[in-house]
Design goal:
heterodimer, A: 27% helix, globular, B: alpha+beta, 3 helices, 2 strands
Chain lengths: 373, 73
Amino acid sequence: MIDAPGPWGTGPFTLTEGYSSLYNEIAIMSAEPLACTWLDTKQDRTDKVVLTANTDHWNKERGPRLERVVFHNDISPSKGLDLVCDTEGEVDIVTEISPADVGRVEGSEHARLHAIDAMRVLLGLVNRGVEDAPLDDARTRRALNMAVDRDRMVREGFGGYAYPASGVTPPYATGGLSGLEPYPHDPEEARRLLAEAGWPKGRALRLATFPDTEPIANMLAGDLRDGLGIGVEVTVIPAEEALAAQHKLVEKVLPLPFDVLLFAWIDLTSDAPAAFMHGELYSSTGPFRIGPPVEKFEELLGQFAVEVDAGRQGELSAEIDRFVYDEALSVFLVYPQALYAVNKHVNFVGYATTFELAETEVNEEHWSRRNGS
Amino acid sequence: MQRWRAPHPPGSNLNIHQDTRVEILDEYKLRIDFPAPDGLVLGKMRGMHIPSTRFWEEEGFGYRKLGRGEGHW
């Protein structure tokens, strides 16, 4: 993010050693008016990045409550997990723990698991623009949703550390709650809807995924095969082709070689999810919209974007979520939790959005304070 | 208020109207004048970084290294 140490910054911490930079290239959807997004190409970081408490921070009640935070970019995730679980004094927090490693953390003498309800959603982006299959028909998209066994996906794919998705907005968001229930797992009704929509006989569904979600893609493919009685071809986009694939997805010039793309998305706030979640996924200027703009969605998002009353804006955000759910604009899968392994003497305060440490503190038993410092 | 075409990595959906103006009232207060209602501005400003003057003069989100700051966090 920042190319050189300062100290600078007006937040709870200031960068005092090392740097962490993002390199991007632009993906343009429209030149006039400009509609674009930035795609990461490289992350350049020093082995260590050190943040020091900004004791002049205006909000002292919030923090900072730590003198120094050291990010070790030279330690692999697996090594970090070893250190937080088996030692003290080396690593206090490891982010993005895989559900497969939860048992390791829970059995640790030194670490505790923190599962944070996060503004994250895993869904299938539906390519409504294909010409040889009725994916522009809401009945087909509802059929896809009703073929999914979300409870099993939560249990077997996420070790229980996720919630079945009922639209895009997680039920623990601060605003924009739609009160929806997940689509029922109803293969019989799914097959009926698919036949009614006229899915071509022998036409397999093309499901694409990035490498990190391949196991979930295979689980989803199994549900779709079993539930709909159709073939499903899974394509894993290799890491070295991910940037080109992202350009193709965002720029919307070339036809996309899939019907459904497994896609993980986030929000940066939690009070009006439609702004960053639904808007990015479905709007006319949304980088991840696949298929033509949806007139009703544009109308709702337009009202939402100029609404300055927070209550009314929340209602509109919920209405937008209900609309995309009713139209089944995606295959809504799960809301994954953010998992952290944390030293037991660290009072970690996790956020639903990003990784923050403003309120996090260590108790007197922490290795850094045992000598009375 | 927004000098770049698309400063935020998430893209132009986080842009603020080009005619938005800022008036500095005192050391701690400013007033932002929007030419049209923008209900999403608090979320947009969630992605707006407020570093020190020294930072802008010496680094500026990629100015020193790349000669530009667009999309470079």
